[in-house]
Amino acid sequence: MGLVVFARWAFTCLGVHAGKRAGPPFTSLSAATSCLRGNNNSKKYSQSAVNNGPRRFVCCPLPHRALLKIQGNDTSPFLQGLITNDVGLLEEPERAAMYAHMLNVQGRTLYDILLYRMKEAEGLFLECDSTVQDSVLRHLKVYKIRRKVSIRSCPELSVWAVLSLPNRPYHDAGPPELSAPEKALVWAADPRTSQMGWRLVLHGETDPLDVIASCERGDPEEYQKHRYEIGLPEGVKDLPPGVALPLESNIVFMQGISFSKGCYIGQELTARTHHTGVVRKRLMPVRLSSPPKDLQEGTLLQTQGGKAAGKHRAGVGELGLSLIRTAHAKETLMLKCSDDTTVTLEASVPDWWPKDVKVI
Which of 77, 205, 277, 332, CA to CA, is 20 to 30 A from 305? Predict the structure, then answer.
């Protein structure tokens, strides 16, 4: 009787039970021997099950974004006079990230930026479009004067966006679990809208999948498509330096401006426009009838009756962002490509905008 029981136990270890395969058979005698010796790998299996569980998030690299490190006793007062938002809010424990614009003296956007509070040192990381990183650095140094501030670029660091997968509602997803939080130099919810997920800053050699549980690797194009689909501008293509106006670019909706802080460059026109309450054009997400070919920057939009309706900014495939006169936002609009073909487009109101905004 004891021999029969032992035989059944041995066959179970080898992956056979009651005539059915219980799992993949052992591929080596040593593996079977380990089982017969009572080797217990339950802990390793449970960890593997967690790591290989259902994926809820996608982690996209952002090579088009660059980082600067700003440190020194005068960091906050230095930036306070240069950006649209209130740097002092980053001193609040629950605020780890902030969105803002840098303006020129005419009140037009030069650069859109994200600021992150550093975890282990005094100072901030500044994220910007990588194509204007040197320009941002020069702009900051012009106003540095004698302030106790050091500014340098951080090519050794990488920026990642962590988004909820399409089948996961944004409000139900909750923040991802960090399996190695000590490797994250920055881990913060995107301050612009919850639909943009979270921002992660790592050393260049660190794999984000080693830091975030339940995450799969995405690509930059996936991030850009998501951004254009929800209608969120970012970088110089969407916000041309010296051309874009912050209020038309929905900076208020993205929590990127303070109307109660002190003076900063470009404040006068921005504050005056805000207090009049009149914004006649808005940067809005659009869906085109077909992907445009050879589209020039700032291509004019027209109504079907031939009236000027705004300008197209940028996009990916059939998705894009256009600066549209709100009076024509309900209409089907047209734009002409360089090859003389005409593409129609329709605008929509993002669901992350305030509900009391009357555009369409």
Answer: 277
Q: Which residues, 6+ apart, have CB-to-CB distance to 272 below 8 Å?
A: none
For the segment 299-329, what is each residue's pLDDT rounded down to a tens digit?
999 999 999 999 999 999 999 999 999 999 9
Residues 284 and 347: beta-carbon distance below 8 Å: yes
* Maximum Cα interatomic distance, the chain, rounded to a whole number of Å: 94
The stretches in the chain having pLDDT less than 70 are 1-54, 167-173, 359-360
Residue 181 one-letter amino acid? P
Residue 139 has a CB neighbour count (10 Å cut-off) of 17
Distances, alpha carbon 79 to alpha carbons 99, 148, 242, 308, 359, in Å: 13, 12, 19, 38, 33
What is each CA distance from 275 to 15, 160, 222, 322, in whole angstroms?
74, 36, 38, 24
Tokens of 304: 């079907």
Do the bridges between strand 57-61 and strand 215-217 make them parallel or antiparallel, or are there none, so unpaired? parallel
Starting at the earlier edge strand, list the strands of the sheet with 198-203: 186-189, 198-203, 157-164, 57-61, 215-217
CA distances from 251 to 137, 230, 331 (A): 22, 15, 24
Question: Can you list the alpha helix ranges (DSSP code H) found in the chain?
Answer: 2-13, 29-36, 42-51, 75-80, 133-142, 170-173, 220-230, 267-276
- Structure tokens that stand for 238 in this block: 């969407």
Interatomic CA distance for residues 359 and 351, integer angstroms: 12
Query: 314, 145, 343: which is closest to 231 by C-alpha?
Result: 314
Q: Is there a contact between 312 and 322 (Cβ–Cβ < 8 Å)?
A: yes
What is the reported pLDDT for 87? 97
The answer to whether the beta carbons of residues 32 and 23 sit under 8 Å apart is: no
CB distance 163 to 192 below 8 Å: no
CA–CA gap between residue 303 and residue 333 (Å, rounded):
5
Which residues are CB-contacts of 250 (< 8 A; sequence separation ≥ 6)? 233, 282, 283, 353
Helices 29-36 and 2-13 meet at what angle, rounded to 10?
Answer: 130
187 DSSP β-pair partners = 200
Specify the residue for token string 């996961």: 168
Query: How many whole angstroms separate alpha carbon 161 and alpha carbon 193?
Result: 13
Which amino acid, 90?
L
